[in-house]
Amino acid sequence: MKSSLSIKGIDQLVKHLDKAASLNDVQQVVKSNTSKMTANMQNLVPVDTGNMKRSIKMEITDGGFSGQAGPHTDYSAYVEYGTRFQTAQPFVKPSFDVQKGVFIKDLERLLK
Q: 52: burial class by Cβ within 10 Å (0-12, 13-18, 19+)?
């Protein structure tokens, strides 16, 4: 009795594994950049009682392909944008602007 083994689709498997590895890299970039942006916000936020600083949290969604960071207090928008009685003390937008450039560079590095 003669037996043989034939494997078909090995090229497709290798391509899939390569793609999966790069997707993991993208997820890691999203996670690290969201974490850094959260830390930047916590460093820039004006502190009175510390409640708003403690409320700044990050959340990774969409299987690791989306990240959100920000404060979870009712009054954070008043601090960020100001009111007619209080000047703005932005901490979200400056953090986002800095991290946006880093995030784009990290993704471009993955594409090379």
A: buried
- Phi, psi dihedrals of residue 33, rounded to the nearest 5°: -70, -35
pLDDT tens digit sequence for 9-27: 667 756 665 666 578 888 9
Q: What are phi and psi of 80, to 5 degrees?
A: -65, -45
- Closest by CA to 99, choosing from 68, 63, 77, 57, is 68
The DSSP symbol for 74 reads T
* pTM of the predicted model as reported, rounded to 2 decimal places: 0.79
- For residues 19 and 25, give the distance between their C-alpha atoms in angstroms, rounded to a whole number: 10
User: Is 89 in contact with 41 (CB distance < 8 Å)?
Assistant: no
